[in-house]
Amino acid sequence: MRVFQGTSPTPAEYSVKLGGGKQFVDAEGKIVPYEQMTPEQRGGFEDYVSSQAGENDGNQINDIQTAITNAAKRHHDARVASK
C-alpha cells in the first residue's frame, strides 16, 4: 500500500511485534485487507495508523480512513447482495 511508503516502523515491522492475534500482515508482509481482518487484527492496524498520525501528513491519514470506509462499504454491499 503506497500510503505507508517511507514510514518507520513499516507495517510489517510494527505488526510482527504484536501479540494476541493482532498481527495485521500476511506471511509476505502485505497488509491483510481490512474487510478480512479479525476484530483483533483491526485493532492492531488501527493502533499502527494512530501511531503514524503525528509523522505522516493529513492527506495520508485521510487516504487510510477513506480506504477503511470503502472496504467496510464493499463488505456491507457484498453481504446485502448475497441475501
Helix-strand sequence: HHH
The total count of helices amounts to 3
Number of separate strands: 0
Oligomer: single chain
The amount of helix comes to 40-55%
How would a textbook summarize the main sheet? Answer: none
Hey, roughly how much beta strand do the residues contain? Answer: under 5%
Query: Ranges with pLDDT <50 over ≥5 residues?
Result: none
The first-to-last residue Cα distance is 32 Å
Alpha-beta classification: mainly alpha
Rg (CA only): 13 Å
Give the averaged pLDDT, no decimals. 81
The shape, in one word, is globular
Based on the model shown, name its key terms.
53% helix; mainly alpha
Describe the structure.
It is a single chain. This protein is an all-alpha fold. It has three helices and no strands.
Summed up:
With 83 residues, the chain is an all-alpha fold. Helices cover 53% and strands 0% of the residues.
List the helices and strands and how they pair.
Blueprint lengths: L10 H6 L22 H14 L5 H24 L2
